[in-house]
Design a protein that fits this description.
The termini are far apart. The protein has 342 residues and is α/β, with parallel strands linked by helices. The protein is built from 14 helices and 14 strands. The chain has a five-stranded mixed beta sheet. Strands 4-1-5 form a three-stranded parallel beta sheet. It has a two-stranded antiparallel sheet with strand order 2-3. 41% of the residues lie in helices and 16% in strands. Helix 3 crosses helix 9. It has helices at residues 3-25, 29-36, 62-75, 91-97, 111-115, 158-168, 182-190, 201-211, 238-257, 264-267, 273-278, 285-289, 295-302, 306-313, and strands at residues 39-44, 52-53, 59-60, 81-86, 102-103, 119-121, 126-128, 130-135, 149-154, 174-179, 196-200, 217-219, 227-229, 232-234.
Length: 342
């Protein structure tokens, strides 16, 4: 081996050793959260049904419940969660920089976001699609009637690309009016600046419900994209990734087994070995995730199962009144399929 080759090999080995040493010295997010005693989540600045503070500053929503579930799993207390409101432009940078522990902000999972930003999605907590809303006064019944229309759209979202691609593919034209702020976008739309507005269909329903405008506006029936939404974590943080992913699956598993906030204590007496392991009566799952064996019990007791969360936040028990549809359990025609917790 020549001197040059020896130096190259030595350099590679030294670099690998330095990387391994640095990795070993860098605490995982799970360790950081345990030491801090709080989970920090990036959320929407205000989207009814998903993440919205009330007049007292108390947050609620499907995404808030996801964050609270992780806090319950890791810290045994769902209230030990902090919510950082982020715009569409801020959200991924905040996670990349370590400002937040996880991003759960009605964010669409795409290849670029999962593979190109140093991030990784930890599951899907809501299946959605991009829709359009118009004033009933326009008399528009479908997207084909929006040729040459002015359309409000949020900057830094998948919606910009989707709407441009959809219209171009049908030899139709439109004029986009792009907004950095979601609230400003809706103010402009309701003031008549745009003929239509496009966003996830659930977000459009939320805007109507929270503003009480259902009588004047309608969401068109067509969807132009698939928008699977879910939490993101930093790529390479595998231990933390597992905790976030299985916290979501625990909520789904609980719904599938009929375990609720009201009956979870009674379920501790179950003779079903899988239920015993799920609720931590029999050890194993907690050890695998490096958290307490009662982690899933804490989620169900303090936050509820997925069905309970869905119902109170976006379902028929909420102002949005969204049917389960694709977000139903696989046993009821939906796409929600919990991976076995064993």
């Amino acid at each position: 081996m020549t001197i040059v080759k020896r130096l190259l090999v030595a350099g590679v080995m030294l670099g690998a050793f330095a990387f391994a040493t640095a990795s070993a010295q860098t605490p995982s997010t799970l360790e950081t959260v345990k030491k801090r005693g709080q989970v920090i989540c990036g959320v929407n600045v205000g989207l009814g049904g998903f993440s919205l503070p009330d007049s007292q500053g108390k947050w609620s929503g499907l995404d808030i419940d996801m964050c609270n579930a992780v806090a319950a799993a890791v810290l045994g207390d769902a209230t030990k969660a902090k919510y950082v409101p982020l715009s569409a432009q801020q959200r991924f940078l905040a996670l990349q920089s370590g400002e937040i522990d996880m991003l759960v902000r009605n964010s669409t999972i795409t290849l670029e976001r999962d593979a190109g930003l140093g991030l990784q999605y930890a599951g899907i907590n809501f299946y959605d699609g991009q829709g359009f809303m118009v004033s009933k006064k326009l008399g528009v019944k479908g997207l084909a009637e929006l040729n040459n229309a002015t359309i409000c759209v949020a900057q830094g979202t998948t919606h910009e690309f989707n709407v441009a691609s959809w219209f171009r593919g049908r030899n139709m034209t439109f004029k986009p009016v792009v907004f950095e702020s979601q609230d400003v976008m809706y103010e402009a739309f309701f003031a008549g600046r745009c003929d239509a507005i496009t966003q996830d269909s659930s977000a459009l329903a939320s805007a109507l419900a929270t503003r009480g405008r259902q009588g004047d506006y309608m969401i068109l029936p067509e969807l132009i994209s698939k928008e699977p939404l879910g939490p993101f974590v930093r790529r390479g943080d595998d231990v933390w990734m597992a905790v976030v992913r299985w916290s979501l699956f625990a909520m789904l598993e609980a719904e599938e087994r009929g375990i609720t906030t009201a009956n979870v204590d009674e379920q501790l007496k179950s003779t079903d070995a899988l239920v015993q392991r799920f609720l931590g009566v029999k050890p194993g799952n907690g050890k695998a995730l490096q958290i307490d064996e009662k982690w899933a019990y804490n989620i169900v007791k303090q936050v509820g199962n997925y069905g309970e969360s869905y119902e109170r936040n976006v379902g028929m028990g909420s102002p949005l009144k969204l049917a389960r549809g694709l977000n139903g359990l696989w046993t009821k025609g939906g796409l929600m399929y919990p991976i076995p917790l064993r």
